Amino acid sequence: MDEDRKFSRKAVLKAALAAGVAAPVALVGGPALARTNFAGGQKVEPTPYCHDGDEPTVDQIEGPYFKPNSPERGVLVDQNTPGQRLTVSGYVFGLSCQPIGRALLDFWQADVNGAYDNVGYTFRGHQYTNDLGEFKLSTIVPGLYPGRTRHIHVKVQAPGEPILTTQLYFPGEPRNNTDTIFDSRLLMTVRDAPNNAKEAAFDFVLNVQQTPTGGPTTSPTSPTGQPGGTSWTAGTSYPAGTRVTFNGVSYVCRQGHTAQQGWEPPNAPALWQKG
Ligand SMILES: [Fe+2]
């Protein structure tokens, strides 16, 4: 079952790359994003927990450098902040890969010199996902500090659900091989951007039960279209802006792609927006 899942993930990603769809999918250097990870609506694995190994044993949840009450902001830099600019964007999903709106994300990281601000709130900020489950962080590539590979800390919480405390990692870092708490499942996909900046993507999957929509119990290839609307059909090439219906709900194509099973509009928020 695990092997099946791995295979289908790989197949989906491969197909995505071959079709040249969805810019985030084509990011290189990291594992598949959760948005590409499910075919046929099966459940996906939650993002693993990860905490600093050097945190006090009395508190297994919050690392030594976490501070509560960070400001609400997605931008942690201004024009004078030293460091290579980095954006991290992605989605927060539940176990059925449906986006979670109003999920809390609290990020904190080291500055360019590998130091945490434990007095103020530099490189600390929390934000909430929008209705599509999207978030975006504007920051710098964090500096290194002894004993750890490069990482960004984050807590993620769906409304009324337990907090996921974890860390995000960068592909190609030499210390990824020696950091004992490094976890390749937490690798972001990272690419170069203009002005020597970096663009990273990561999708969180929270351990939150959801009722799958458009999953295996419905027929993904025979959705019920509304009269007068074009029904979503696997194998069709949809340019951005195309409007379709799927199980009676209307969606607009966000990125041009060739539809395939597993990418039904309710399952693929990176590709289809309700409305
Ligand atoms: Fe850290």
UniProtKB/TrEMBL annotation:
Please report the stretch or stretches of sequence annotated as the Chitin-binding type-3 domain: 229-275
Gene3D superfamilies linked:
Aromatic compound dioxygenase, Carbohydrate-binding module superfamily 5/12
Supply one GO BP term.
Answer: carbohydrate metabolic process
**Family named by the database record:** Belongs to the intradiol ring-cleavage dioxygenase family.
Q: What is the lineage of its organism?
A: Bacteria, Bacillati, Actinomycetota, Actinomycetes, Pseudonocardiales
List the residue ranges of the region (Disordered).
210-237
- Which InterPro entries does this entry report, sorted A to Z? CBM5/12 (IPR003610), CBM_sf_5/12 (IPR036573), Intradiol_dOase_C (IPR000627), Intradiol_dOase_core (IPR015889), Intradiol_RC_Dioxygenase (IPR050770), TAT_signal (IPR006311)
Top-level taxonomic group: Bacteria
Q: Which SMART domains match?
A: ChtBD3
The protein here is known as Dioxygenase
Pfam families for this protein: CBM_5_12, Dioxygenase_C
Q: CDD domains, from UniProt?
A: ChiA1_BD, intradiol_dioxygenase
Q: Which residues form the signal peptide?
A: 1-34
